[in-house]
Amino acid sequence: MVMTKKPWGGRFKKTTAASVEKFTASIGFDKRLYPYDIQGSIAHAAMLAQQSIISKKEASKIIGALKSILKDMEKGKFKFSISDEDIHMAIEKELIRRVGEVGGKLHTARSRNDQVVLDTRLFLRGEIQKIVVLITSLQKVLVRLAKQQINNIMPGYTHLQKAQPVLLSHYLLAFVEMFTRDIQRMQDCLKRVDVLPLGSAALAGTSLPIDRKVTAELLDFDAISANSIDAVADRDFVTEFIFAASTVMMHLSRFCEDLIIWSTEEFGFVEISDAYTTGSSIMPQKKNPDIAELIRGKTARIYGNLTAMLTLQKGLPMAYNRDLQEDKEPLFDTVDTVKNCLSIFTEMIANTQFNSARMCRVAQNGFVAATDVAEYLVQKGIPFRKAHEIVGKIVAYCLEQKKELESLTLKEYQKFCKKIDHEIQNVIKLENAVNARKHVGGTATKVVMERIAALERTWSKN
Ligand code: ARG
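^ thats the input. predicted complex w/ arginine below
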């Protein structure tokens, strides 16, 4: 058994069993936090020097070595070892190896409990900003498509049954609105991520004369945690981020579900580019929407990560417990997956053809203008409930006669209601049905174009 001396080994008479090293180590996954760990340590050393807790000379030695460790790690020249347990100890050990005993001063007024939260917050702060950029890029592609498709009508669905005609652009912008809320949720979460935990040490703070404002400024934190116990115990910000990410995934997954249905021969509304689909190993004719299916599938895993985070914390005694090390894999997996899905989805949707002729043709039948006929009767003074019943009877008649609303004569219409006049032919035209919905939030071409312009204005401002 290979056993190494631990930085915390003072009170131990026996060395750690190799199996325990392996079981407890997080270095395998937390090594990706190295840039943040070093960034945090540099700020911490500078603060210690400013407060004369260590000398300026000691600080500059430590900071110099940390910077060279960073360079080596960036170049992939550093060999991580399981005996180092986690990224914090790996870097500290290397620091001491490079500068000698003075390196042991870096961990003054600090514990891994506040250090790991600091690293996680620094990491997540950057990742949230990247995710917001990715969501915005997707929105821009959707708005570009909405502009291209502005004249195209599709059947809108409820219960996956044809309901009312809408602009394809209106449908696309529905997702733009969802993604706007996703961005807002990410940005709101960022406020609670952007808080300095360092200085809380193990849980009770430190008796040394630290100045947390200095550290916060050096690391560009918006706020400083107000309670040292809370600061090391809190993983709300991770949980909240995974919830926000789950909602992004839910929206992507929902969009994917439509694309999957729409790309069936039965629907034929879209054709995803060959470059973004895959084939079957047995059925030569197949072209499968695997990207969309995988995004839908990965969404399940992200929900699992959210459940893991909630469950991880529900029974934990205050304050830090090693259980909390289990926050990292769900967090990293969520960050990687949501970024991956956003960028591949954006590529896929930009490479999808919308079969607008077919969409419009499908919208022509199935009585999608039935509500418009009822609302037309309302304008003639008939109570809506009554109008609903009259149109229901018209539809039943059409089904019996194998006719559509367009093919009924005025005489036939008048058998159901005397008040119907020649205007009815205009009322049931899809274009008119769409453009009649001209209130805020409606699907009228003018309203949709205004929304596109408003979205473009907010992007040109930022
Ligand atoms: N690897 C640990 C984690 O991720 C770092 C903190 C360890 N603290 C401790 N007291 N053992 O949570």
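The first helix runs from residue 18 to 24.
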